[in-house]
Design brief:
The chain is mainly alpha-helical. It starts with a helix and ends with a helix.
């Protein structure tokens, strides 16, 4: 069975690795390529959480679970929306500057800081709360909604989908 928690966490892991890749970039072109993909996915991820995960947390999150006495789905959701807004703002700021410029790095650093804070809070509070209070069936249902949302919102602009002749391809690339 698919699990919404696994899908959200997989994105979190991917985000962390992409921020590390920015640290290894050797050129402004490398920075732009990594950041364009990372920032777009951050935007889609935040929207997916707000459409799929947080409405379910608000309905099914446990308020008084003994292992999470401070778990309040409304507070967790408010924190997430506020974090998402800060991340979105930093991404918008980054898009106003040339990759590699001081202003660009400042905006990307802010996005990284805000995202790191958000991931930590979500993994410490919202996700455990939901694991303890939501059925496996619900988590699977939400995973399917998550997959559909991501499929509908991740663009493939500029990707050719026409059939290729294998012989021509091999000749061209050999």
């Amino acid at each position: 069975m698919a699990d919404i928690i696994d899908l959200v966490y997989a994105d979190h892991d991917w985000f962390r690795r992409q921020f590390f890749r920015l640290d290894d970039a050797k050129s402004h072109e490398d920075l732009a390529a990594i950041w364009n993909i990372l920032s777009a996915r951050l935007d889609v991820h935040a929207e997916a959480e707000e459409v799929v995960f947080y409405p379910a947390l608000l309905k099914h999150g446990g308020h008084d679970h003994p292992s999470n006495p401070s778990g309040d789905p409304e507070d967790e959701t408010e924190d997430a929306i506020t974090d998402h807004n800060a991340i979105r703002d930093a991404i918008r700021q980054s898009r106003q500057h040339e990759p590699g410029s001081d202003e660009w790095f400042a905006a990307v650093h802010e996005a990284r800081e805000q995202n790191g804070k958000h991931l930590e809070e979500e993994e410490r509070e919202a996700m455990p709360d939901f694991i303890k209070s939501a059925s496996l069936e619900l988590r699977h249902e939400l995973a399917m909604k998550w997959a559909q949302f991501i499929d509908e919102h991740m663009g493939t602009s500029g990707v050719g989908n026409r059939e290729k002749d294998a012989d021509e391809y091999i000749e061209k690339h050999s």
